[in-house]
Specification:
5 strands, single chain, Arc Repressor Mutant, subunit A, 11 helices, three-stranded antiparallel sheet
Length: about 240
Amino acid sequence: MESAVIITSRARLTSLPFTSRVEHDEMSLHQALVLFRRVLGTSRVDRDLAAAREVARRCGCLPLALRIAAARVAARPHWSFGDLAHRLTHRSRPLDELTHGPLSVRSCFAPAYHRLAEDDRRLFRMLGLSGVRVLSAPPGTELPSLAVPDVAEALERLADTRLLKVVHTGAPGAVPRFWLHGLVSAYARERAEAEASEIERAAAQELRRLEDREAAAPVLPAAIGRARSGRPGSWGPMGREPL
C-alpha cells in the first residue's frame, strides 16, 4: 500500500527529496467570496456583499486571514461584514481582529520573524515603521546607519521566509522588485513599535516626510543618510500599495 505525507510550511522546503511542491498564494476576490459563502451561507454573504468584498481586501485575500474573518462573523450572528470591515479599517492593530480561537495571523508570521538574523529583523522593522510596501535594492546596497551590510541579500532572505514576495524580476540580471503584504506590514509595524531603536524611528520618520513631500516614489537610503550621516544611498524606487 502506498502512502503520502502532506507537509505545510511558509518556507520552501527545497532540501526534502522526492517531493512535489505546491505553492498557495493569495486568493482572488472571487475565491475569497466563495470561501465566505461556504462558511456562512450564500444569503448572509450576498446581502452584505460590498462589505464582504471590503473585508477580503482588508485581509489581502490571505487564506488564513479570510478563514478567520469568516469564523469571527459566523461566531457572532449579530455582526455583519460591515462591522468587521469597520474594525479592520479603524483599529490601530488590525491583527488583533484576525484572531479566533487557536487561529491567528500574527502567530503565523512570528516564527519566520524570530528565525531571522538581527540584521534582517532590523530591516523588517524598518519597513514596518516606514509603511513602504514595494521596494528594490541593487546588489551591494548598504545601510551603514542600521548595520545592514547588504540590503539586496537581506531582501532575498526575507523573501525566502515568505515575509516578502518577489513581484517583478524583469530581464536576467535585473534588480528584483519586492512586495510586502499589507498584513505582514502590520506585523512589521507591531514588531517595530515593540523593538525599534531611536535610529530606526528617526530614519522611518525621514522617509515618510520625503514620501509625503515629493508625492513620488522615495529612495530609502537617501532618507536614512540624511537622518543619520548625510550619506546618500542607492535604493531603487519604492512606494505604497493598498492592502
